[in-house]
Amino acid sequence: MYYLWAFLIGGLICMIGELLIIKTNITSARILVTFVLVGVALEAFGIFDPISEFARAGINVPIVGFGASLAKGAIGAVKARGLIGAFTGGLEATAAGIAAAVGFAFLFGLIFKARTKK
Amino acid sequence: MDDKKRNEAYNNYVKAKIPKTRPWPSLFNSFWIGGVICCLGQGINDLIMLAFPNMAEQTAWTYTLVALIFLASFLTGIGVYDRIGKFAGGGSIVPITGFSNSITSPALEFKNEGIIYGMCVKMFTIAGPVIVIGIIASILVGLVYLFI
Asked: Rounded to a whole number, what is the distance in Å from the CA of B38 to chain A's nearest CA?
């Protein structure tokens, strides 16, 4: 059952992204930034977890989930360690994702050749 | 004055040259491909939870995202992801796989300019702003929560 929700919510978020691309011709960097900020806001206002409860991967796999864990990390670290948490929390929570993306990009960048665009 | 006229002509030219995507098929494609990628993530997460029942849910999600990032990076390397992207638009950009693609793709493309100045610098042409804005937002949220 939750696969259906994951499909619907995830699909909906991606469709909103596509709609933004069609309507405003914005670049993919801006799309990603927008959705990260949406995720941060959802988490900051406490709306993310209720959605995540039933949508699961539907909202955690889109980049919105990345933004939410940035905010979640910062909030948790501030509560646990005070001021310094605001600086450590966000990156701590997303470190695995960033390190994986950079590490694999470097690895596959070395291994594979760029395809010439036709 | 001439500048104004020239700019206007140029803008019209650009408008005429921008490829017209038909909105409904592309919206539909981005919907179902985005949905499928999310279901794939859910499947990986369920498999991890099945294999390691004692793992914390948060850790399992982290592994899931790393697996998706690996997959997208590999598919970018062999040139498959860009083909999906042409078809899926937002469906391939918005999921975390799109973030991974946005780092691997320039890494490949600028490899011939050298490892340091090509790959390492250009890797962050798209992901850089995402990480910068994300970090700034998380600091602000942390500061707000410190005072409430």
From this structure: 5
Does B110 fall in a domain?
yes
Q: Domain for residue B16, yes or no? A: no
Query: Does position A59 have pLDDT exceeding 50, yes or no?
Result: yes
CA angle B93, B98, B101 (to 5 degrees): 130
Using CB atoms within 10 Å of the CB of residue B126, give its burial: 0 to 12 exposed, 13 to 18 middle, 19+ buried.
buried
Residue B138 lies in a domain: yes
Total beta-carbon pairs less than 8 A apart between chain A and chain B: 277
pLDDT for position A25: 82
Q: Tell me how close the Cα of A50 comes to any Cα of chain B, in angstroms.
A: 16
Instruction: With CB atoms and an 8 Å threshold, state whether A15 touches B31.
Output: yes
Assess if residue A21 is contained within a domain.
Answer: yes
For A95, the domain range is 2-111
Q: What is the pTM of this model?
A: 0.90
Choose the closest CB to B139 out of A10, A74, A82.
A74
Return the HEC string of B80-125: HHHHHHHHHCHHHHCEHHHHHHHHHHHHHHCHHHCHHHHHHHHCHH
Query: How many angstroms away from the CA of B129 is the closest CA of chain A?
Result: 7
Give B21's pLDDT tier (boundaries 50, 70, 90): low
